[in-house]
Amino acid sequence: MPSRTLGRGDVSVTALGFGAAAVAGLYEHVGAEQAAAAVDAAWEAGVRYFDTAPHYGIGLSERRLGEALRNRPRDEFTLSTKVGRVLVPHDGGGDDLAHGFAVPATHRRQWDFSADGVRRSLEDSLTRLGLDRVDLVLLHDPDDHEEQAFREAYPALEELRSQGVVRAIGAGMNQTRMLTRFLTETDVDAVLCAGRYTLLEQGALDTLLPAASAAGKSVIIGGVFNSGLLADPSPGATYDYAAAPAGLLRRAVRMRDVAEAHGVPLRAAALRFPFGHPAVASVLVGARSAAQVRDAAEQFHRPVPDTVWEGLRMRGLLPGEVPVPVRGGA
Fold it and tell me: How far apart are CA 316 and CA 20, in angstroms?
């Protein structure tokens, strides 16, 4: 599995990363054995970058990922988690489906982008993970807390990095404007951009990716399937965690037809596409089972001929100025 270094630092990530939201019961229940098998399959496939967050399953993702990685050689994998939501015990019962996770509502989330909140969140994450360190820490979804994130949370992360508590810092969001600001106004190592640089949409190409290249920083791409639509464009498919609009579904179906005409599943093209831009260091894929992990690894390694990109462009499905991968590159 190829790997790249984040920014100008010394933290490396494999080109294919494991996103651990799904193993925490995203949308539907996932048992402990199934979750562990998914992480094991990722390791067997050569994946050495794992991403989690307190938000995912209100702590369950971190607990499960930590348990699955605890007996692995610590220097052989890179782990990222996020700060900005502190988990507070809750005894009111119920479930967490309102936030997308099929888990008991044992905690509630409390936004906190203060310096103390950042430190507390990281300490709590390390406790849940049961590991001695996290390599990359990201400010998580600070959309409605912009000024506090820049004024208080980011300096706290920078201090933690200077102290050697963490090795790399950044931000993770579903938008490009603030991520571009982090790249241009701070000394982050990387940003995680979810859903905004895919076969269906390339908004990150306007400012985010050029800013990363200019600053010598890295971009990690999440949501490469746009939450499902590019994995299986069929009726009922989801886009950005909701039912896909009819127009986007038709476009994805046309993309699938082009890819399959050249012997390539659409999900293979979707996984490979972001690496056309040199600032992209890794693509995160969420999987809830070992079978899904093995499929993702298989699709990642599947060659995508140039004729796929040419076919998409000829049909107006991919703008001509969008960079595409060099065959065999990652």
Answer: 34
210-261 pLDDT tens trace: 999 999 999 999 999 998 899 999 998 989 888 999 999 999 999 999 999 9
DSSP letter for each residue of 123-144: HHHHHHHT-S--SEEEEE--GG
| pTM score over 0.85 | yes
Report d(CA 79, CA 138) in Å as an integer: 11
Q: Is 312 left (phi over 0), alpha (psi -120 to 50) or beta?
A: alpha
Rounded CA separation 227/230 (Å): 8
Summarised one tens digit per residue, pLDDT across range 291-303 is 999 999 999 999 9
Which residue's structure tokens are 């044992």? 106
What residue type is 298 in one-letter code? E
Exposed e or buried b for every residue in 116-146, given b needs 16+ CB within 10 A?
ebbbebbebbbebbebeebbbbbbbbbeebe
In a 3-state reduction of DSSP, which class is residue 18? strand
Residues annotated as catalytic are: 56
State phi, psi for 258 to the nearest 5 degrees. Answer: -65, -50
Rounded-to-integer distance, Cα 79 and Cα 48, Å: 8
Matching residue, tokens 């100025």: 321
